[in-house]
Write a structure and sequence with these properties.
Layout: E1 4-11, H1 29-40, E2 42-48, H2 49-59, H3 70-75, E3 77-81, H4 88-91, E4 95-99, H5 103-112, E5 116-120, H6 123-131, E6 137-143, E7 163-170, E8 176-182
Parallel strand pairs: 1-5, 1-6, 2-3, 2-5, 3-4
Antiparallel strand pairs: 6-8, 7-8
């Protein structure tokens, strides 16, 4: 049984749906190595439908020459949480639909996969998994920029979500990599 590791690029004001904001900060070696450490232990990718549909055309044609992460994204089994998508394999090879969101189904998947499950983006899915205690590691790559509007991982009105800081590192491009896990139970 592995763990579920979530990776989010976010702004300091918590917006997670503006990936183009990362372009101005480059993709230095230490960022690549940090993300590589997350994907290195993963034997499966878990994605929500929207992120899957954004990633498929972006990654499916890339090669290792284009991006060192391409083999991971293309060769690793992708598990898509969706109640509307029926044939993920037709969209992107090595992809399967696990059905609509079910905490019990994702717990079973976590037990079935030999290794870790890696999640990138997928804010709606991640919110539900956080609420159900399914996220073992939340890796926030916080860009030194506030954009004011956009989809937030923790939107207004979201339930209180206590977390425990597991690690913090400053990357060469000014990005803070913060790692959180579930908060210890109060007692």
């Amino acid at each position: 049984m592995g763990v579920i590791k979530v990776h989010e690029f976010t702004t300091v004001d918590g917006v997670v749906d503006v990936p183009m904001c990362t372009v101005d900060y480059g993709f230095p070696d230490d960022l690549s190595e940090s993300i590589g450490a997350l994907t290195g232990s993963a034997s499966g990718i878990l994605l929500g439908r929207t992120t899957f549909e954004m990633f498929a055309p972006a990654w499916s044609t890339r090669t290792v020459e284009d991006d060192p992460g391409a083999p991971f994204f293309n060769d690793t089994t992708k598990h898509v949480v969706s109640s509307t998508l029926s044939d993920a394999e037709a969209v992107w090879r090595n992809s399967t639909v696990v059905g609509g969101y079910s905490a019990d189904r994702l717990r079973a998947l976590k037990d079935e996969v030999d290794g870790d499950l890696y999640v990138s983006g997928s804010a709606t899915l991640v919110r539900a998994m956080l609420a159900d205690g399914l996220v073992d590691e939340l890796h926030l790559y916080v860009y030194p920029l506030a954009v004011g509007t956009g989809i937030r991982l923790f939107p207004d009105g979201a339930p209180r979500t206590p977390l425990a800081l597991l690690g913090a590192e400053r990357l060469s491009n000014g990005v803070a990599h913060l790692t959180y896990g579930p908060a210890p139970a109060a007692g």
